Amino acid sequence: MTESIDPAVPLDSHESVTWAGHPRITTVLPALATGLLLVAVGVVSSLVEETLLFLAAVPIGAAIPLWKYLAIQGTQYVITDQALYVKHGVVTRHVTQANLETVQNSAYGQDITGSMFGYGSVEFEIAGGNDLSFQAIDDPRKIRALVDQAASNNDGLGGNDRQESDIPGTLTQWQRIRDEIREIHTTIED
After folding, report:
1. Which of 38, 46, 128, 144 could lock 54 by a disulfide, CB 3.0 to 4.6 Å apart?
2. pLDDT of residue 3
3. DSSP at 164
4. How many angstroms separate the CA atoms of 13 and 47, rounded?
5. What is the DSSP letter of 157?
6. Structure letter (DSSP) for residue 65
């Protein structure tokens, strides 16, 4: 993992980071275009009509893309072997955490430019609400698969590669119980 994790992300000492990233820097381009247009309007209007619009338009036009850039740099997405984290904030910080065992569903999406340039968004449905999304990230299909794999290995319901579960018994024992309940159900219906 080459990317440093912001200290605001509350990682436990036993967590290992699987992936970390930021939104793509190219998402600044619409704000940059808006800022440049505003600066151009301010400059042209001050030259043509000799107004003081220049004094307001230029600083605001410069601030719009700068703020968007800082917002992107202030956003970090982190996937560990136990949880998902989303950190936002330029001046203040807000961190949302969801344990992998609470991830119920996931979906990724790419608009037309995302399909052409390989970026998109991933949405994670979290049990109990507060769904998470990773916006404008590279290779969203890979990130979704990474989380789906980690979440499925984190349920403790079988397989040698899965973690220990707090649920007593083995998968085979629970399947036997299920079969017995089905048999009782069938007997009652007859």
Report:
1. 46
2. 65
3. P
4. 60
5. S
6. H
Determine the pLDDT at residue 175.
86
3-state class (DSSP) for residue 57: helix
SS3 105: strand
Q: Which of 122, 124, 76, 78 is nearest to 101 (CA)?
A: 124
CA–chain centroid gap for 130, Å, is: 12
Q: Which two tokens stand for residue 115?
A: 């399909």
Cross-strand bridge partners of residue 88: 94
Can you read off the two tokens belonging to residue 96? Answer: 């949302």
| Cβ count near 57 (within 10 Å) | 22
Over range 24-46, report the average pLDDT: 91
In this structure, are residues 124 and 84 in contact, taking their beta carbons and an 8 Å threshold? Answer: yes
Mean pLDDT (whole number) for 116-135: 91
Give the closest residue to 1 by CA, choosing from 164, 146, 153, 161: 146
Report whether 140 contacts 108 (CB < 8 A). Answer: yes
CA 163 to chain centre: 24
- pLDDT grade for 13, boundaries at 50, 70 and 90: confident
CA atoms within 13 A on the CB side of 123: 9
The Cα 40–Cα 61 span in angstroms is 9
Helix (H) or strand (E) run with residue 119 in it: strand 119-126
Task: State whether residue 21 is helix, strand or coil.
Answer: strand
